[in-house]
Amino acid sequence: MKLVCLLLCSTLLIFFSPKKAVSKTPWSDFSLTLLQGKDYEVGDNEKKVATFEFAAGHSWGDQFFFLDYLSSDNGDHETYFEWSPRYQLMTIDQSTIKALFIASTIESSNFSGEDGSSNSFINYLVGLGSSFDIPHFNYAKLNLYRRNNEQSADNYQATLTWAVPIGVLYYDGFIDWTNTSKDKRSNMNFTSQLKYNLGEPLNTENRVYLGVEYIYWRNKFGIKGVDENNVNLLFKYHF
C-alpha cells in the first residue's frame, strides 16, 4: 500500500512540477453525455446518467477525466469520477507500440440513498501504460495497474480503451478486468458506444452524437453471479 501511494504521489508531483506547468497541449476535448437504461444491476435497475468528460494530450503525456452523476426514480443518487493522468517514459519508432507511460488513476464515489443510507470511497491505481498504432483506429491504449482499494483488499487491473470509425458511425469503449482478491471475485466490465455524428448533416462544427451504449459487466463490483447486460440510449455533445 505504501509503495502504491508513494508511486502515485511521485507521479502527480511530476505532472504539477514547474517544468510541466509550461508544457504544450496539442489537443484537448470536452464532452457531455446523457444516458438512460433499464437493466442496471445493484440498486435500482433504471437509471439516468449525465457524464462530463475531459481528455487532453500534453508534451509530458496525456490525461482523461470523467464525472458521472447517476439518479434513479427511487431517489438514489451517486457521483462517481475517475482521473487518469499518464506520464510518457519513452516513444518507440516503427513499432505497433507507440509509447510507454507511468499510468495512474484516482477513482472515487459518493452514494446517497433515498432511505438515508450513504457510502463513499476513494481508490488509487498505479502501473504501466502503453499506446498502440493500429491501422484505422483513432487510438488504442492498454494500462496495467496495482489497485490500492479503500474498502476492499488490494488487487490488480488491466484497462483497454479504443476508438475506431466504422463508415458513418463511431465505435469506442473500454474493457476493465480485475483479478480475484480475498473479498471480491474477478470481474470484467465491457462498455462500448456506437454512435452517429448528427453534426455533419446539421452542418455544425461541434460533434453531436446519437446512439447506444452497451454494458456487459460480469460479477459487477466483484459480486459473484451479478452479471449486467444493459443497453442505454445515448446523446453526446462535444464542445
- General shape: globular
- Parts with pLDDT < 50 across at least 5 consecutive residues: none
User: Helical stretch count?
Assistant: 2
User: Widest sheet: strand order?
Assistant: 1-2-3-4-5-6-7-8-9-10-11-12
Number of domains: 1
Amount of beta strand: over 45%
CATH architecture heading? Beta Barrel
| Average pLDDT for all residues | 92
> How is the CATH topology named?
Outer membrane phospholipase (ompla), Chain C
Name the CATH superfamily assignment: Nucleoside-specific channel-forming protein, Tsx-like
Count of strand segments: 12
| Main beta sheet strand tally, sense and closure | 12 strands, antiparallel, barrel
Class inferred from helices and paired strands: mainly beta
Q: CATH first level: which class?
A: Mainly Beta
Distance between the termini: 39 Å
Helix content range of the residues, please? under 10%
Rg: 18 Å
Topology as H/E string?
Answer: HHEEEEEEEEEEEE
Overview of the molecule:
The chain is mostly beta strands. It has a single domain, classed as Outer membrane phospholipase (ompla), Chain C (Beta Barrel). It contains two helices and twelve strands, in the order ααββββββββββββ.
